[in-house]
Amino acid sequence: MARNVEFNEMESIEKAMNVFWEKGYHGTTMQDLVDAMQINRSSLYNTIGDKHCLFIKCVTSYAENAIKESKIKVAQEKSPLQALKNIIYDKAAWVVDCEKGCLGVKTIFEIAPEDVEVRKILSKNNEIYINFLTEVIQKAIDEGELETTEDASLIAEYILTTFTGWKQAYILHRDPIKIKKMSEYLIKHITN
Asked: The whole model's pTM is what?
């Protein structure tokens, strides 16, 4: 029976995450959450905690799932350079296809400046993703697929920062062709 409760909690967290994603932390009420999760308020408080505790679980789950998905895709590719290109192409496609934007980026601007706990989670996630990208880039360098004198971690930070800029550009201009061209340019810049 415990596994069923755990499954329901994860399902509820995903529903709550979608509310936070759409309305933001400050714009989301407890009523929005209990309505979306289809549980009563006391169940929410007894199993997960208050709004902030739930938000922490949502942000943590979002971050863990994003890195897990990327790692699975990279593990399926024999060429580390092709894996890196796939990460870049996938992010460009996601920027265009995901209307909600990035929950992590939204959270950075909305509450991370004032919420130390949230900032620590996002900072840790950022570090994990940069380390992951660094490993892929370093492997491409070590295998001779990528020739560069730059440090792999600097390239990884550059790529991750670029992804954020793409979302901003897409929100402002709604030009999917421009995002595709920017992804091609990023790959060209890294590989030349």
From this structure: 0.87
